[in-house]
Design goal:
heterodimer; A: mainly alpha; 11 helices; 2 strands; 76% helix; B: mainly alpha; two-stranded antiparallel ribbon; 13 helices; globular
Chain lengths: 281, 302
């Protein structure tokens, strides 16, 4: 029948389009892994860079990225989870709430390089934090906020209303209901959201360009007010700014960064599916 | 507010403090947007005084010679973004339809995490891949002097916008009531006819939202674009501009901010570009959010 031929062609086209989307993803991941695997060894991961980054390892960049991610977490988690609790448990459908939601959508849409400008203007210059881990972390934290708030709110909302009514019927205050019933139930979802936000922060380059990143600093940062190297910026520097850079070091850095980010991604997925299977509501 | 219907014991003193704190944190998001705009203005607004408008919207960007024409950069951003969307829209919608409506369960389980992987790959890694593999490929295919072109950037950007487009379009398809599909199938329509004539049109507004959010993502993307577009600040007006180097607003900021003297006209001009980007993405997201909220208020469809 003619219309079933049309259907077959249509479905074939949809399948083809999906393959065109998916195949390059696999290609990128495979190429980065294959190229990078040859470059990575213990020394590469744990040694300081030498000879203007053309030899040695990328240890300070790894440490820098971990420190920045930690700093981002410290600043973004309390604000993000607090904001999510407000939106899911307290906010009425008012003009203010709508303004908050709009603000979150817009925070999520602001270009990363504009966050960099903002961080330079507010943290580095106005608050005189200098190009430092603190300034970079705070910039990244604000950028991460919308991801954390949205996912944490969704996790809190997915806890059934009955949990709250039972808590209230036993004489619990609203905060007790949140603290002892809702929050623990929503915790896996919140952790997933936090990881998803942080992995974005760990991989971003533009916000740290003017707020923290050091071009070449073959030592570990000495304080939160020190500059640091960071993996994404390091990859940018060695692939565009340094002529005659050995390809091997570029490949190794690309793989290290991708592995870090994708393992966080994997952790988030595993936590989500593990607890979804476990929960009884 | 979920617990609105629940009558609880009134809060104690310590709890009252925590509840106020949580409220402040919620409202702080508005403060952050305002703060960002304020600081962009503070550092960027002087450029509108220091440089005459005819220069500012001129066709030449040579900051060392005091030419601050933003037009080639704005057009560069628009060229790259629109091309990316033209590439990503059909692919994204088709994949969303495939995942939601056609694919068997196991394929969905594989596809969704894979698309999340794409969303997670850092921009600079995609830029590196584009620079070392895609650009040489394009150079040889076109026989052009360089593979670092607007098209290379658009191609990478299309893939960066795809996860957003796919996930929002999927939500839109998901919001189409099952009764629509049942009714169509009961009338004797094939699954394809149902998808093409009923489901996709019903999800139209959500798909528009998806495209807008994808566009917002694409126009603000920085590192990958900077690494693969060649960064020549020229007016992209001829037909072959797509296959020539181009320079976007984001790349200009990222590339030049490190080298300017703080407080100089060039410095203010880069913040000025930031203001333009902020306003553009604000408007795009505002439009996307309005369609999203309106849909939610009407309780589901359109």
């Amino acid at each position: 029948m003619h219309r079933y031929t049309v259907q077959r062609v249509g479905f074939a086209l949809l399948t083809l389009a999906t393959l065109v989307v998916v195949a390059p993803i696999l290609l990128v991941v495979a190429v980065i892994i294959v190229q990078g695997a040859a470059a990575i060894d213990w020394e590469f991961l744990t040694a300081m860079p030498r000879d203007g980054m053309k030899a040695g390892g990328i240890f300070p960049a790894i440490v820098g990225t971990l420190l920045l991610t930690l700093g981002t977490a410290l600043a973004a988690i309390p604000v993000g989870v607090g904001g999510a609790i407000y939106l899911s448990e307290y906010a009425r459908d008012s003009r203010l709430t709508r303004a908050i939601r709009l603000a979150i959508v817009n925070l999520a849409g602001i270009p990363s390089v504009v966050y960099g400008l903002f961080g330079l203007g507010l943290f580095v210059l106005f608050l005189q934090l200098g190009t430092s881990i603190v300034a970079g972390s705070l910039t990244l934290a604000i950028m991460t906020l919308p991801v954390i708030i949205s996912t944490a709110e969704e996790a809190l909302r997915s806890v059934p209303v009955e949990f709250r009514t039972v808590s209230a019927s036993l004489g619990g205050t609203r905060w007790q209901g949140i603290r002892y019933i809702v929050l623990p139930q929503a915790l896996p979802g919140i952790i997933t959201g936090v990881i998803l936000g942080l992995l974005r922060a760990a991989g971003e380059t533009a916000p740290i360009l003017f707020t923290v990143a050091a071009f070449y600093l073959p030592r570990l940062p000495r304080s939160p007010f020190d500059q640091t190297m960071a993996l994404p910026y390091h990859l940018y520097v060695i692939s565009t700014q340094v002529p005659g850079m050995p390809l091997k070091i570029q490949h190794g850095t690309a793989l290290t960064l991708m592995a870090l980010v994708l393992s966080m991604n994997l952790a988030a997925t595993l936590i989500r599916s593990h607890f979804r299977r476990q929960r009884q509501w | 507010m979920i617990a609105g219907r629940v009558h609880t014991t009134p809060p104690r003193w310590g709890e009252f403090f925590l509840e106020t704190l949580v409220r402040i944190l919620g409202v702080s998001t508005i403060g952050f947007v305002a703060l960002i705009f304020l600081f962009l203005l503070r550092e960027g607004a002087p450029v509108f005084v220091e440089v005459p408008l005819s220069n500012l919207f001129g066709r030449a960007w040579y900051p060392t010679f005091d030419y601050f024409g933003t037009l080639p950069l704005i057009l560069g951003s628009i060229l790259v973004t629109l091309t990316a969307i033209v590439l990503a829209l059909p692919l994204g919608v088709a994949s969303a339809v495939f995942v939601r409506e056609v694919a068997p369960g196991w394929a969905r389980e594989v596809l969704k995490p894979l698309i999340e992987v794409l969303a997670g790959i850092p921009s600079v890694v995609l830029g590196f891949f584009g620079m070392t593999l895609v650009a040489p490929f394009i150079r040889e295919t076109l026989g052009a002097p360089t593979g670092l072109t607007a098209f290379t950037g658009a191609l990478i950007l299309a893939y960066m916008a795809l996860p957003t487009i796919i996930s929002v379009a999927e939500d839109a398809l998901d919001a189409v009531p099952k009764s629509y599909r049942d009714a169509s199938l009961a009338m004797g329509a094939t699954r394809w006819q149902t998808i093409w004539r009923v489901v996709v049109p019903a999800a139209r507004s959500g798909i528009v939202t998806a495209v807008m959010l994808g566009m917002g993502r694409a126009i603000g993307e920085t590192m990958a674009v900077m690494m693969v577009t060649g960064n020549a600040a020229r007016m992209p007006l001829t037909l072959d501009s797509l296959f020539r180097p181009v320079r976007t607003m984001t790349a200009t900021i990222a590339a030049e901010m490190g080298e300017v003297a703080q407080g100089s006209t060039h410095y203010h001009a880069l913040f000025g570009l930031g203001i333009i980007l902020f306003v553009l993405t604000f408007l795009i997201n505002l439009a996307a959010a309005t369609t999203m909220f309106r849909k939610r208020q009407r309780g589901g469809l359109r």
